[in-house]
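Async update (no meeting this week)

Hi team, since we skipped the sync, here's where things stand on the single-chain job. The sequence we agreed to prioritize is pasted below, unchanged from the tracker. I ran it this morning and attached the output directly underneath so nobody has to dig for it. Comments welcome in thread, and please keep replies under the output.
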Amino acid sequence: MRLNHKLLPLSDYHKAKDLFWDPRAIDLTRDRTDWASLAERERDLILRGASVFLVGEEAVAHDLIPLLLAIRRAGGHTEEEMFLATQLFEEAKHFEWFDRWLTHVIDAPVDATKYFGAAYRKIFYDELPRALNRLMTDHSTAAMVEAVTLYHLTIEGALAETGYYGFAQALKENDLLPGLLRGLELVQRDEARHIAFGTYLLKRLVQPEPNLFEMIQARLNELLPQVLALISEVFEPYGDEIPFGLNLAEMMAYAGEQLTLRLNAVARALPQPA
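Output:
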């Protein structure tokens, strides 16, 4: 077969090549200096956020392969397989990035798991592997839709985006940890392609089966309380005085807005009334 160069997955496949970056190339010299100047509560919040990202990126790297296999099994979408190959590589690279930052900047062992509450464990240790591993035995379109709704729309499209938003407020506005900020910007740039692909794939899947859109809506409604609970777990330990002036209500509202944005994007693929 010949490739369809007009399709978004192939376009984003090429962007993955053009926009390649190496975590080892980011200068962390000033990060070490800035880290030494931070107050204990500020350090704790940065560590909490970096730990959440570290293990989250490891989890999504581990759990993506069943989706690639499902698309391969269905056949006829080589461009999507090519894009997912770049996404798998990038998820591994994101895990490498957070591991490198923690290793080179924090002058002590970090127990990331102490920052994980019930909602975090529910999403990353239960919901994510269950939905993706389901594709190994359940070959239905509904199973694929559920997996992409959780992975691309919820974890990447809402949780990760909220994390980037919070980090940007904390670091950019206070001129802190430029290496961490640069790495986060590059990770977010990659994730934008991943979210775009997930939206594209859901549109492709719901166009011939519009009833699946209701399943996406229902699943997002189920996941929203878990998303908000996870964000609360990150910020509530600091009470009403979250370091760097961050606001829990603002973060939760931002996450909800991201879910709505993703859902509306998929809805545009539905047949429009005459």
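Quick observations from my side:
The CA atoms of residues 54 and 98 lie 5 Å apart.
The chain has one domain: 28-267.
Reply here if anything looks off.
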